[in-house]
Amino acid sequence: MIVNGVAIDDTFAEAFGMRATRLLITALNLKWAYHAARTMTGFATSVIGCGCEAGIERELSVEETPDGRPGLSVLLFAVSGKELAKQVERRVGQCVLTAPTSAVFAGLEGEAVNLGKNLRFFGDGFQMSKVIGGKRYWRIPVMDGEFLCEETTGMIKAVGGGNFLVLARGQAEALGACEAAIEAMSRLRGVIMPFPGGVVRSGSKVGSKYKALPASTNHAFCPTLRGAVNSELPPEAGAVLEIVIDGLTQADVHDAMRTGIEAVCKVGAGGGILRVSAGNYGGKLGQFHFKLREIMQ
Amino acid sequence: MTALTLTLRAPPPRSVDLSALIPERLAGMNAVQIGALPLCDGLDVADLFDVDGGDARHLVIRNSCDRLTHIGSAMRSGTITVEGDCGAYAGLGLNGASLDIGGNAGAFAGSGMKAGAIRIGGNAGDFAGGALAGDRQGMRGGILAIHGDAGDRTGERMRRGLLLVGGNAGAYCGANMLAGTIYVAGKVGMMPGFSLKRGTLLLARMPDPLPVTFQDSGEHALLFLTLLEKQLQRDRDAFARFLPFGANVRRYCGDLAWGGTGEILVFC
Searching chain B, which residue's CA lies closest to the CA of residue A28? Predict the structure, then answer.
């Protein structure tokens, strides 16, 4: 399959079942909502080393937020419900509670995960609970007034690790196409691209020659190793970048991959793009397989 | 489908407990069976009411008066509409249903209610949402909306839920309150929040005098009030009497004789 001169490999992205939640972060203005959300979703690129994968899903208008203030929705993904609960509590406690004027609310219905349930103890006995509309909220006194947070958020089963690889003649061409893809994908709901700017240059494979490491560089796609290893790259490929997608549903990941690959193909061979491929582990590890050619049909 | 209607022929000579007449108990019964239900002192339903059969999920009591007590007591589902006044203990222990009283209600309306909604179009007697003698807690959830005035000790020992008073409230409003929220759109009588342990007494007007065991915490914009207002706006027809109320309040923490973890909030 060739789209606008870009070859679509006959391969698939292998994704995994994860647990996810959505949080709604509001503040006095969007600037401070962003401060809270960016801090909370920082160092959350990969479950391998960060405990969770997280990102800002979209901006919320004042009509969409529970408290009528500007806000953002963020998504968090983890490999288990227990780990997700740990990450939510730690990140909200350190990054949202601490951000001036912020408040945080559940953005999903599902199995309950503690949000303010334990954070309330920061109130040292001065915290107050309010049940409004069947939901419990905690009012925690802080130095700029009160931090308002919902007691729990909802956790659902989700999909993590959808991906595609962009093979280009050079770094600039690969990065430009990925930026176009991220711009298009960021308009979609229910997905995040957790790596810096949504793009990752250090794609990994399972295992390493060093026994202590669970993952190591994806040598088959490293252009400087062409000739030394069994490379997946054609001679003209100078750089490969990857976009990883976590989504609340399989359909969300599917749609995001299609949107991203379409944007890459729009740049096309004329823009230095050679191929689109995907990362997988032979289909034995992940329960979700996203076949590139089926997605692009 | 039409509602099941009970029309009171004449006020009974003494109080009559109607706790047996709730939608879930009347479901599947015809008018004759309902008419034969015993009430008290040898009286059956048919001795007092004209029964017009219909869907028991909505029970209408017409020509009601203050001698009909315990209307909607422990009701779990359905709706009761009361056309006229009702006696004491209306909605006692209500748990998830809806009770709509067009006129006035007697004492202990909504006492011990756990969930659901009670609307009182007129005034409520003493202890609305409060605790029965010997009970440790009053209202434990749901919404009790009194469009007129409320008597003394409104919301006494209230544990959870929202109690709205569109008019004035009597003395000792929110006394011994454990948690929950009481809003009074008019004036409150003496000693509001007496022995308040937790919970919020939300007042449109400054109490005169403010009990000495409440101390000024200054003016604040509290977000939870925005959530509360938005919640009420979702059913604007029912709660228009109490809206809008904004988020800017002066906070008085107290009752400091009881730890000071409750509050009286007065709208700025």
Answer: B223
Q: Which two tokens stand for residue A13?
A: 């992205």
pTM attached to this predicted model: 0.93
Report how far apart, in Å, the C-alpha atoms of A238 and of each of A159, A200, B172, B205 are.
31, 16, 80, 73
**DSSP, res B138:** S
CB contact A103 to B (< 8 Å): yes
Reduced to 3 states (helix: H, G, I; strand: E, B; else coil), residue A5 is coil
pLDDT tens, position by position, B164-187: 999 999 999 999 999 999 999 999
* Residues A104 and B227 sit within 8 Å (Cβ to Cβ): no
* pLDDT tens for each residue of B67-126: 999 999 999 999 999 999 999 999 999 999 999 999 999 999 999 999 999 999 999 999
Rounded-to-integer distance, Cα A19 and Cα A81, Å: 6
Distance CA B157, CA B177 (A): 4
DSSP H or E run through A15: strand A12-26
| Tens-digit pLDDT profile for residues A183-196 | 999 999 999 999 99
CA distance B174 to chain A (A): 16
Show me where the domains of chain B are located: 88-267
Give bridge partners of residue A192 from the DSSP assignment: A246
Q: List the one residue out of A13, A39, A47, A23 whose CA is nearest residue A108.
A: A23
Beta bridge partners of A113: A153
Q: Name residues whose C-beta falls within 8 Å of residue A109's C-beta, 6 or more positions apart in sequence.
A: A154
Q: Where are the alpha helices (DSSP H) in chain A?
A: 30-40, 47-50, 81-91, 171-185, 250-267, 292-295
List all residues 6 or more positions away from B48 whose beta carbon is below 8 Å from its beta carbon: B8, B9, B12, B16, B39
Tell the residue number behind the tokens 């809206």, with chain if given.
B243
Cβ B261–A125 below 8 Å, yes or no? yes
